[in-house]
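Retro notes
What went well: the complex prediction finally ran end to end.
Inputs used:
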Amino acid sequence: MLEGKIALVTGASRGIGRAIALTLAGYGADVAVNYCGSAEKAQETAQEIQALGRHAILVKADVSVQEDCERMFREVTEQLGAPDILVNNAGITRDNLALRMSAEDFNRVIDTNLKGTFFCMKLAGKQMLRKRSGRIISLSSIVGLHGNAGQLNYSAAKAGVIGMTKSLAKELASRGITVNAVAPGYVNTDMTAVLTDAQKEAIQSQIPLGRIGSPQDIAETVAFLASDRAAYITGQVISVDGGMGI
Ligand code: NAP
């Protein structure tokens, strides 16, 4: 499905990003594995991709830093080629009730989840314009669509990702580039491991399909959007949330 394609997945050392990187490789893509702090985990992701018979490279970059993103795209282009697929997955949370939230925690989440996505969209968009094809897929969240107490900063960033996705889709559609977002509900990763069992049970009771999502649930949707099968889909937000947002 993705043979011959080059993908860059940000935050591919752990969690959903790791599953996306492995799934894209499973469908035939060569993958650049971006990470920030988890070098060993990223190395494991890359080794698993290579075991699938695909090329994988490691790229350390903090997506909240524009110069890091520029260097990352240079390294990927030199070592694998210009990406056909960009997956903006890197993300963090710094939760607190709005009235207690520091400007620092607000900025940190916006810098990583929103500005990091903007930097990478711009760099990928430039390269994809030359190819007159490409796929840009960004991770939003159910929280970006519906809000969540304790996550004002995160919901602002994830709603912003949706706005950027729709705007960029309109700018790039005539050049054969599609731009979409995936909005997961609750997914079992390090990000949600901080929840107590009682909190997880409360969340689970609100999910019509009756279970918390797996990284693979998200990765399959991303792989579909990255493929030719999704050629006529752009500017969309696909919820993968077990029906939680209905
Ligand atoms: P996770 O397990 O905490 O993993 C986060 C990943 O992002 C790691 O690979 C981390 O890399 C990377 N990352 C963090 N800051 C970075 C930075 N500045 N530059 C580059 N990479 C950075 O998170 P996850 O649950 O897999 O979430 C992945 C995406 O899905 C995020 O955008 C998140 O907001 C979104 N999402 C998650 C859920 C959920 O329930 N889990 C729900 C909705 C949306 P290092 O460890 O190498 O630093």
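What we learned: The chain has a mean pLDDT of 98.
What to try next: split runs per interface for comparison.
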